[in-house]
Amino acid sequence: MTSAYIFAVSRHRLLTDGDGCTTLVTFNGCPLRCKYCLNKVSWDPLKGRQYTPESLFEEVKIDQLYFLATRGGITFGGGEPLMQAEFIKEFRTLCGPQWRLVAETSLNVPLDNVKTVDPVLDGYIVDIKDLDPAIYKSYTGIDNALVLSNLEWILQYGDSCRVTVRVPHIPNFNTDQDVAKSKERLKAMGVANIDEFNYIIR
Amino acid sequence: MKKGKQTCKILKEIRKQIAEENDIKLVIEECTYQGDCLGTCPKCEAEVRYLERELEKRQRLGKAAIFAGMTIGTAITAASCGPLISPPNGMMEHPRDNIVATDTIRNDSAEEPILLEGEIMAPVPDTLMEYVFEPKEDEDRPGVYIVVEQMPEFPGGDKGFHQFIADNVKYPAEAKEKGIRGIVYVNFIVEPDGSVSDIKVLRGIGGGCDEEAVRVVESMPKFKPGMQNGEAVRVSYTVPVIFRLEDKQD
């Protein structure tokens, strides 16, 4: 039985993390330790409420009509949703092909996880942090080699329109020049949708 | 709760559109509730269930449910290759100053803990075990971790660290003269006693800034060490040391 810990199910998000009306499902467990992480509760992989794909589907299908009417669906976040690739794959068999399933991910997971989940996802929102390995490491604590190789794989084997890459200005960690360099490199890799923004430290 | 009222209004509009598209009679009364609104309420939910039942009836008669042309506000476009995060106010560009943004998609209800203290946690099934936290070891340096349960912490946290850097960095004359500015990334090991060792520059900017960054890191007070399974361990840590040259120099 596949199951996962989920720390929140947030309904009726309108145009915030994917097209249409979406429900955000946030998994526990994350390989990163971002300095300005907002959901630090997700760092503990065994906190929250335990769900199976079936029990999650039972809970979120209450908004099916909104999903179908607005081309919305579920945005999986976290934590790192791609650590739960099997869970998402099984969830797709339950919800059918019409719901939009999007993952908000760091892509810092083994390629096998990406290969498992890729056929069932309609979109990725990739929080890339910064492409420079030193900046990435200082902000997240770990290396970004997997992020880049996974992004290349997705762009090579899938439709690049499915991918939105968020490039943040991270106070005290990167500069405007660093962000510009990241964007240039992403464009050269074939990323069509780039979302540049500021982190706001609360 | 303004946001809730706004959500309620949009969802009501969606229900109205579904009803119109599918010839379903739906009488929507104006909501007079003045208190906090979560965006939905039993009355709203009842309307959704009513629409579902009516659509099912139609499907049994061989009529397909119609959802064509359904939009939220004006921001959804029919573009086949647009960003997944729609810009505010229907803008298609992303001027960064106008974007209210956070690191990772914020879960609005994250502040409310789901599992209360003392609550008994369900048993962990086998398939979950692979996700249980495992520390990551530095491949090049055995015995040195890069991620542990509790990462090392500078006295005063990140704020304290940035203040220490700002107070102690002396701008090298050469860098000042050449207008060199930027961030030097310095890696080191935080030892179990909180001291730092094996300091090296991962990415430098020259002009004497790299050496100055190393000097400041060497002079840092002891960290609260990284902890794994209740024990202090050696952890690789990288920090940014910022060299900010004011535009107006004497």
Question: Would you kindly provide a written description of the structure presented here, covering whatever features stand out?
Answer:
The complex is a heterodimer of chains A (202) and B (250). Chain A has 202 residues and is an alpha/beta fold. Chain A has a single domain, classed as Alpha-Beta Barrel (TIM Barrel). Chain A contains seven helices and eight strands. Chain A has an eight-stranded mixed sheet with strand order 3-1-2-4-5-6-7-8. In chain A, helix 3 packs parallel to helix 4. Chain A is globular and about 45 Å long. A three-stranded antiparallel sheet of chain B has the order 4-3-7. Chain B has 250 residues and is of the alpha+beta class. Helices cover 27% and strands 15% of the residues of chain B. About 21% of the residues of chain B have low confidence. The two termini of chain B are 52 Å apart. Chain B contains five helices and seven strands, in the order H-H-E-E-H-H-E-E-H-E-E-E. In chain B, helix 1 runs parallel beside helix 2. Chains A and B meet through strand 1, strand 2, helix 2, strand 6 and helix 5 of A and helix 1, helix 2, strand 3 and strand 7 of B.
List the topology elements.
The complex is a heterodimer of chains A (202) and B (250).
Chain A: E1 4-14, E2 21-27, E3 49-51, H1 53-60, H2 64-70, E4 73-77, H3 85-95, E5 100-105, H4 111-117, E6 123-127, H5 133-140, H6 145-157, E7 163-169, H7 176-189, E8 193-198
Parallel strand pairs in A: 2-4, 4-5, 5-6, 6-7, 7-8
Antiparallel strand pairs in A: 1-2, 1-3
Helix pairs in contact in A: 1-3, 3-4
Chain B: H1 2-21, H2 42-60, E1 136-137, E2 145-147, H3 157-168, H4 173-178, E3 182-190, E4 196-203, H5 209-218, E5 226-228, E6 231-233, E7 235-243
Antiparallel strand pairs in B: 1-2, 3-4, 3-7, 5-6
